[in-house]
Amino acid sequence: MTAIQPCALLLQVGPDWQVEAASANVAMLGDLKPTSAIGQPLADLIGSKAIHSLRNRMSWLSNDESEVQDFGVEWGDATLDVRAARTDDHFLIEAELAVEPRLPDGIGMVRSMSDRLSGSDPARLAEIAMRQLNALTGFDHLMLIDPRGEVIASAQRGKPRAAATVAQSRTRVIADRDADPVPVLGEPRSDLVGRAAFSALDDDERVRLADIGLFSSMALPLRIDGELVGSLQALHHAPRRCGAERRSVAHLFAERLVARMARCGWQP
Questions:
Q1: N or C: which end of the chain has fewer CB within 10 A?
Q2: Which of the listed residues 97, 126, 145 is the one where a domain comes to its end?
Q3: Interval 143-161: pLDDT, tens
Q4: Distance between CA atoms of residues 167 and 169, nearest Å
């Protein structure tokens, strides 16, 4: 069964901008039955103003590997943070319930954090950055992982460090290990919905987290010139999901970090 975590809804949209698949919690957008969303124009679900903004964002998708985000958008009665990707001429849209207001200056935060990185030792740069990212995201454990799954640097908030995992090639967010999955209805394309950050946990993921006493995690892939060089991984002992804009700031800063580490001689 294709499913998503309940903190987000999923829509798959075809080239005609009609909904081909939708998660059963799409009713958070208004008074509609989930099955009635299938086959509807997306504009009928989210409104003409929202569809205009979303289509403008989607025009930024330069290739099938890219993604775009928008924060604090109003769809119906819900305030959502939106992430969109594409495969061929089909689009994947994930909209998660916003957990915090917009940041005053996200780009300014990245600049300020980058300015605090000093020196030319890659290991030292990574240590400084992990402390900043740990404070920014609020997770118990924050780790920079190389492509082999080795920990380059880490920071934690007074708890024993959890085991690391392999470097992730896609964004993956687990908000609550024990949350009930929400089925995706319609005709979801596996190559597209497989890229969903909030896809429901499989049994192996749930067992792995339970074995090390964790309820939530976040993995952000890090690339230099399109090549995967590692990932930023966060782990927490209770359900947790930091805001999408805050995650975006962390992701951008971490990719600037590994690029600087590479310029200072680090080889992933």
A1: N
A2: 97
A3: 999 998 899 999 998 666 6
A4: 7
Instruction: Please give the full DSSP string across 177-229, using - where no structure is assigned.
Output: TTPPPEEEEE---HHHHTT-TTBPP-HHHHHHHHHTT--EEEEEEEEETTEEE
Residues 14, 30: contact at Cβ < 8 Å? no
- Is the CB of residue 24 less than 8 Å from the CB of residue 185? yes
How far CA 232 is from CA of 9, 147, 179, 249, in Å, comes to: 24, 11, 23, 12
pLDDT tens digits for 18-44? Answer: 999 999 999 888 777 888 899 999 998
Q: What is the pTM of this model?
A: 0.92
What number of CA atoms fall less than 13 Å from residue 258's CA on the CB side? 27
- DSSP secondary structure code for residue 62 in this structure: -
Cα gap 194→50, rounded to integer Å: 25
Q: Is residue 198 one of the residues assigned to a domain?
A: no
The string of DSSP letters for 71-113 reads EEEEETTEEEEEEEEEETTEEEEEEEE--SPPPS-HHHHHHHH
Task: List Cβ neighbours of 104 (8 Å cut-off, separation of 6 or more).
Answer: none
Which of residues 37, 64, 97 is at a domain's end?
A: 97
